Amino acid sequence: MKNKASLILTTALVLPLLMWITPGSQTLKSFKMSVSGTSTLHNWESGVNKVSVKSDITINEAGLQAINSMSVEVDATSIKSTKGAMMDKKTWEALKTTQFPKITYQLTRIESITPNGAEYDIKALGNLTIAGVKLPIDMNVKGKLLNGGNLSFKGDKKLKMSDFKMEAPTALMGTIKTGNEITVHFDIVLGE
User: What range(s) does the Lipid/polyisoprenoid-binding YceI-like domain occupy (predicted)?
Assistant: First the structure.
């Protein structure tokens, strides 16, 4: 009887702890992602409407412990501008969406996860593939534990189209040109 009571007490104490330490897959709960840049006419921004994320993250009672893996896939033709269909067409041509319909990011290594108040400063390294060209990139990301065990990751990353062998889109026989530098903005929420 004493052993049975001990077993019940141990189970009652350990089970919640095991449920809290959660290495495993998280699903995409929500996202906001966009790409912005400049042109000779105006600044521009295009929203991303189709994203999928696969991740394996470890969280325990002390908070975010590890990002074991993460991959992000963007449907390139889901990138749409507020400036209309002509801008979308030019964007998709630059991205070579007929040949390369997906933009992908694959995490290769986490350099550091540093608690900063209620957030985490994360330094990540990964491979970004755009228009068929894969390049290593580093990113500084803000992580935050949300209610319900969800996690948010926010950040911005400046890129040069020419690094990915893309030609900056032009219009009106070259009189309107976009700048070579773009910024990717992301805010994703993952959870179980």
Answer: 25-191
